[in-house]
Specification:
By secondary structure, the chain is an all-alpha fold. The chain has four helices and no strands.
Length: 84
């Protein structure tokens, strides 16, 4: 997870927020689609394990996306009021 956070932080410094959010959702959806196709079209067992690991990565990426967006939209006072 720290590696995912580091990569996300490097990319976030180079992309505008709307493009970063779209790229984040696009990558998550593409990987899920590939893993889903792998589980349905083959008899391999590794895609099921990869989906379990990818679930944790998606959770971390979604959290990074949400809190990054919240920090851009709200100032400190609003954040303390809404996310006490």
């Amino acid at each position: 997870m720290p590696l995912i956070g580091l990569i996300y932080d490097r990319i976030a410094g180079r992309l505008a927020l709307p493009l970063l959010l779209l790229a984040n959702v696009g990558v998550m959806a593409a990987v899920v689609a590939v893993l889903w196709l792998s589980t349905t079209l083959t008899d391999a067992r590794w895609p099921a394990f990869a989906l379990a690991v990818w679930y944790e990565v998606v959770w971390a990426m979604t959290s990074l996306c949400l809190w990054g967006l919240a920090s851009r939209l709200l100032n400190v006072r609003q954040g303390k009021r809404l996310f006490a």
